[in-house]
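TA notes, week 10

Several of you asked for a full example with nothing omitted. So below is the full record: structure tokens for the whole chain, then the designed sequence directly under it. When grading your own attempts, check the secondary structure regions first.
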């Protein structure tokens, strides 16, 4: 297992910290975003006013947003219906399948998109496998769905290795 495969390209406090100006400077035209604990709190499917404003800003500036989630189709469809964004369900992260499907839907090349998620073991690993830049964000809420708890345990072990190799992470407010 190569440590660099789990190292995010960027660390941001939240997906809402992605602003149009910095995305355009990096030639980003599409954002792939995990659903639970990244875009919305896993236990609050309505999202926040901040989320709605962020999505509106992305749309107004022709930056495409697509949800890439390991959840089943019905769950993701129900969650994103009020946000007017496309999605890939059962993405099978940490494998690249869902990322490749999202690239096709976005009609973009890997160099022009970024994957945003809250988990090293799934979101960041899948992005690297697909050749897409990655952003790790802090979880929106401290608790997780039962299915994520094992990954969090593995992630804590991976963080220790990353810190030993690369130093303490620095969470940013801007890209």
């Amino acid at each position: 297992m190569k440590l660099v495969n789990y190292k995010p390209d960027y660390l941001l406090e939240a997906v809402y910290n992605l602003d149009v100006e910095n995305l355009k400077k990096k030639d980003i035209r599409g954002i792939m975003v995990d659903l639970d604990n990244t875009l919305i709190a896993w236990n609050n499917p309505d999202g926040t006013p901040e989320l709605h404003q962020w999505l509106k800003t992305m749309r107004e500036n022709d930056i495409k947003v697509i949800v890439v989630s390991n959840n089943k189709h019905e769950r993701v469809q129900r969650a994103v219906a009020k946000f007017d964004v496309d999605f890939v369900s059962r993405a099978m992260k940490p494998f690249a399948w869902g990322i490749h499907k999202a690239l096709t839907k976005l009609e973009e090349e890997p160099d022009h998109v970024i994957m945003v998620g809250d988990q090293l073991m799934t979101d960041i690993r899948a992005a690297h496998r697909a050749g897409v830049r990655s952003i790790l964000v802090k979880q929106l809420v401290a608790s997780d769905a039962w299915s994520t708890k094992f990954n969090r345990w593995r992630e804590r072990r991976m963080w220790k290795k990353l810190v030993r190799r690369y130093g303490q992470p620095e969470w940013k407010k801007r890209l």
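The chain is about 35% helix and 15% strand. Use that as a sanity check on your answer.
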